[in-house]
């Protein structure tokens, strides 16, 4: 299966391990991801606050490029990138908007390229059966709080799953042999967009997400979003301080958990790049399994 | 040539301001057939009508055209005027130069031009107008009431009390509907069953009422005065003539099923009556759960029944009956709260609906009237009510207000405080709407005497932590988020039409709105009638209502139905379709398109080249035809004509328009 792939800046920066694990898992499962040549920034963090046309033109250029290379499915890992590209895709369905955007990017848009989330491609195109067939080290006994954040599921127009109670990642975790916990914070905001401007607010919001994951009995959190991850992982210390509770919750990209269950080495998945130590939980897991 | 008069109305300044009425009248004098034309300030007034009548006599007119307002407004006025002048009513023609000219054209010259054109067309038609007559149809003096909730029961009782036969039908096996599930009613807090049960019994015992419970309407044919309704009497597997309602079978039946009447909060048996006061108080067997009917095992009820009433061989019965009029009272369904995933409805057992709470408060309910949490049976202390769940929410495709929830929530908060004095109720609301006699006072009392705490704002999320439900919302009066740890959450689920409301409407030939509520003929002036003559609406099938409103509408529908039944015969439409058999090719296109099923085929014999030949042609049942004209435009042979709107008349109008 050949798909266009849009990494966005985070997969080359803060979410390095997301990029590593995505590619490793894709390779293992036979998902051919072709990076879109000459891709540009999707403008996620600021463009839509500055200029609506720019905010649509930036991601639309990537869709136009994908079309030029005949890659009609554009797979996106980062939730923020996904949302920007999806919104551009929907906006360009409108003829008037499309013409305007085409003028700005000096490229033609056929409206064929679709923004797809990596999570949804795994769950639907690859299928749970296929995922299961690659599992060699089931995540036996691992209690996972699946945290979707907001950008993949809200607003409903761009949602890849239910806006209020998405279950896609839970299903994947189950397929990997893990136990998704039932909790109410899976789509609650972690404060990602306030992370730099009002850090304290972001820390407080993050702390609540961590608290409820812990309350639900989770050993770790799985996410599909680099923004959420950097908040939950990098700011976990600050969150612990804010609430006076120790969480010690490793934050995994769901692809890292897939890779682990597929038997890939921690270094291939970037498990050593976490703020909250993340290797030992998964190593202990396989140790219990080996016994 | 006919002698035609033209009367141009000023409608005060309504028309005269933007149409030169004098020019219109002057021009009219030059049209073929016109022997007289004049104008008047108010043609519909007494002097205006006198003027027409005098002109008819003095000028010896055969017919006339009134250029005035919309025929919807005054067609009848001028037809009656024609009769008084000694003409056939249908020799009066009205043309609309108000809504179609003066009100829509600011330019007086253009408006005048258009008025002149319209009058020329009308004259061309009036010359070809023919006297039309109406006929009469006999009325079957029986009414059918579909749905036996409080509205249906009330309508049936009123019609029966007025001396007519009524069949009261319900697909459930007891009458009573939603009201039977309710514990107490607002604003008087009398027990629902106490006021409903006597009515149920009265309906059952009324000599003029025949109850047809456990029966569905399969199809409706015919027309006002004579509806032929096909009914399916569902197999109950119990012979009601033999059954004494002793209840032994129900007691001994080994199969437990969750009870729909108890909103799945309690059990029932596979052979059961839904609630103790049910009417008829005889059980039916639920074929989907009965062990004997499913796999031939058990048979306990048959063995135990002292009168031998159990009959596993019983089959559905289909019968056709004729009724003069139909009252539709099919009621509502409660909004499916699981569509609010953010409220965890359907996932958390302690997030319930208003109807659940009614059952929990009811003495004959699953907890014998003790308010207990469904999850663990604990007595709740903090109760949160969330209003407008499935109402006033466009995101859920429910933009309308369900009307009764504000009051039933106030009622619940009051009753809970009475039953559990230690408890505390919080009510999240968008608005409080208490339009009704003594309603506002009731709501005030809930706040002031029963300690109901009202919080203005929407709830964004409900989730479970431990055995508490965390309700997170906004207090928009304070401008702060708010979080309450509740033991029980009651969602005020709104009303929505029955799932099969649209199917039912199609069977009845009545219309419905985008949500499935049945449409009244006019929102203000005909709130009881449907667009189909002889079919009336009562209760929540037309839109959300509370009990008093449903009862009021039911009585109104009964009056309409009785009025119809008390007429010996009905006058049929004069402007119906008519088939010119000489040119009809018998293709049948008209039959399939007629929305009232008014056309069927008939055989005629005619002489062709000296031989007698038989062939089929279309035949219009004038009693059914509503004169909509669908058949005429569909007929490839131009054989179909609407009386008063024949092809010839319409073509004459087109010709007249083209003559300018
Ligand atoms: S559509 Fe016209 S031609 Fe055909 S059956 Fe009807 S009346 Fe006759
Ligand atoms: S005019 Fe309308 S109602 Fe009458 S027969 Fe024709 S299609 Fe049927």
Automatic annotation (TrEMBL), chain A:
It comes from the Bacteria. PANTHER family: COB--COM HETERODISULFIDE REDUCTASE SUBUNIT B 1 (PTHR42947:SF1). Gene3D superfamilies: 1.20.1050.140, 3.40.50.11810. The keyword Oxidoreductase applies. Residues 4-85, 144-233 form the Cysteine-rich domain. Coiled coil: none annotated. It is an enzyme of class 1 (oxidoreductase). InterPro entries: Cys_rich_dom, HdrB/HdrD_reductase. Transmembrane segments: none annotated. One of its GO terms (molecular function) is oxidoreductase activity. Its EC number is 1.8.98.-. The gene is hdrB. Keywords: Oxidoreductase. This is Heterodisulfide reductase subunit B.
TrEMBL record, chain B:
Keywords: 4Fe-4S, FAD, Flavoprotein, Iron, Iron-sulfur, Metal-binding, Oxidoreductase. Residues 234-264, 281-315, 575-604, 616-645 form the 4Fe-4S ferredoxin-type domain. It comes from the Bacteria. The keyword Cytoplasm does not apply. This is CoB--CoM heterodisulfide reductase iron-sulfur subunit A family protein. It holds the Pfam family NAD_binding_8. GO terms for molecular function: 4 iron, 4 sulfur cluster binding; metal ion binding; oxidoreductase activity. Transmembrane segments: none annotated. The keyword Isomerase does not apply. Belongs to the HdrA family. Its cofactor is FAD.
